[in-house]
Write a structure and sequence with these properties.
This protein has 191 residues and is mainly α. The chain is 73% helix and 0% strand.
Length: 191
């Protein structure tokens, strides 16, 4: 089952539908004036971002292998299986968990926002470096702007211990992204 979902990013076919569903539920259940709305807004945004990255088979995986790692077609460092686990565990499961924890403490919503901001920044920096589109860039650009506003909004409208949450969410998000880059860009990692 997992191999079927991982193969050519079949799991990503659910991303736009989950994005629509979560956006609809968010808009229906939580008013935009509520800081929790802004703490959770990156869940549907990230699902739309994943749609741009992975819905067309290859997409981000091929870009990373052929453009960033400069491998010939057919050789892979970033495999379908790695793409599956990275996106399911680090986005779907983690965002669900942190989204639920946001109802207890808005700081977990900030964690979703900061994680998203760092990911969006990587797409934007990649565009500046290579002067070409990369899978996820369009949504990352939009998501970056909305995430800046979301971070501002929850920081000044309901986030307690803001300095603590900013420091811990930045450190956590940087650490996770550093580990991801090592996994995705390491030329010795071939699984």
């Amino acid at each position: 089952m997992i191999m079927r979902l991982a193969y050519q990013q079949n799991w990503a076919k659910a991303a736009p539908w989950l994005g629509i569903l979560t956006a609809f539920l968010l808009l229906l259940k939580i008013p935009m004036s509520n800081p929790l709305f802004w703490g959770l807004v990156n869940i549907p945004l990230y699902l739309f971002h994943q749609t741009e990255e992975h819905y067309i088979p290859g997409g981000f995986k091929d870009y990373m292998n052929q453009v960033v790692n400069q491998l010939p077609p057919g050789q892979e460092i970033l495999t379908d299986r790695k793409v599956f686990w990275i996106n399911i565990l680090l986005v779907w499961v983690a965002f669900l968990l942190f989204g639920l924890l946001s109802f207890l403490n808005l700081g977990f919503g900030l964690l979703i926002i900061i994680f998203s901001l760092i990911n969006c920044t990587t797409h934007i920096v990649e565009w500046f470096r290579r002067r070409r589109w990369n899978p996820g860039l369009i949504m990352a650009s939009l998501q970056f702007l909305l995430s800046l506003y979301a971070a501002y909004f929850i920081t000044f409208h309901g986030l307690s211990n803001a300095v603590f949450w900013w420091i811990t969410t930045l450190l956590f998000s940087i650490l996770v992204h550093a580990l991801l880059f090592r996994l995705v860009l390491s030329k010795t990692s071939r699984s």
